[in-house]
Amino acid sequence: MRKEDCFYLGKIAKKFSFKGEVLIYLDTDEPELYENMESVFVELNNHLVPFFIEHSLLHKNDLLRVRFEDVKNEQEADELVGAEVYLPLKMLPKLTGNKFYFHEVIGFTVTDQRLGKVGTIQKILDNTAQPLFQIEHEGQEILIPMVDHFIIKVDRSAKNILLDVPEGLIEMYL
Fold first, then answer.
1. Which domain holds residue 123?
2. How far apart are CA 54 and CA 34, in angstroms?
3. Are 112 and 170 in contact (CB under 8 A)?
4. Are residues 68 and 7 in the same domain?
5. Is residue 97 part of a domain?
6. Bridge partners, 24 (sequence order)
7. Of 12, 35, 58, 169, whose CB neighbour count within 10 A is largest?
């Protein structure tokens, strides 16, 4: 499995028991969706390795307590701590309306209600307090905050996002 064909689910935060169980921090708003998985991909040495789940149970709010089939003791669990966990993209629940996954809108055209076509989304910058659309417009970069009330319509079939951003926000880049 290639990393490009997967989405980041979380990270193995720590071991849980002497029997080799681990706690996976789930980077999701709906951890209950991932409670009964059969397997996950764990990134080890820059490769995604399938791990089959013997049993799992939600632990606190955003942790999943997992027992993998081939991890039988603390030492084996220790080797997994800090590793990132992935699932195939096809396992993502479908979103509708104006909700979207960041990877889903890369390449979408951005249109502003006032100014018309702005450019194409190159990536989503989510390492800031507010995620940003990074848009390419005629060789220039435009950054627009991903604020719900800016997003008027997400048209998946046309690969377009219609925005209504405050006057001057886009113009300051042009």
1. 102-173
2. 14
3. yes
4. yes
5. no
6. 12, 64
7. 12
pLDDT along the chain (174 residues), means of 10: 90 93 91 92 96 94 93 94 95 86 92 96 90 95 95 96 96 90
Token pair, residue 154, equals 């997400």
Q: What is the pLDDT of residues 133-149, one digit of tens each?
A: 999 999 999 999 999 99
Amino acid at 132: L
d(CA 38, CA 56): 9
Q: The tokens of 96 are what?
A: 């509708």
pTM score = 0.71
Are residues 87 and 14 both part of a single domain?
yes
Q: Which of 101-110's residues contact partners 24+ apart within 8 Å by CB, and which partners?
A: 101/7, 102/126, 102/131, 103/7, 104/156, 105/133, 105/154, 105/161, 107/159, 108/159, 108/160, 108/161, 109/158, 109/159, 109/160, 109/161, 110/135, 110/144, 110/160, 110/161, 110/163
**What does the alpha-carbon distance between residue 150 and residue 16 come to, in Å, rounded to a whole number?**
43
Nearest to 131 by CA among 113, 107, 154, 105: 105
In a domain, 96, yes or no: no
**Looking at the structure, do residues 9 and 82 belong to the same domain, yes or no?**
yes
CATH number reported for the structural domain that contains residue 107 in this entry: 2.30.30.240
Residue type, 77: A
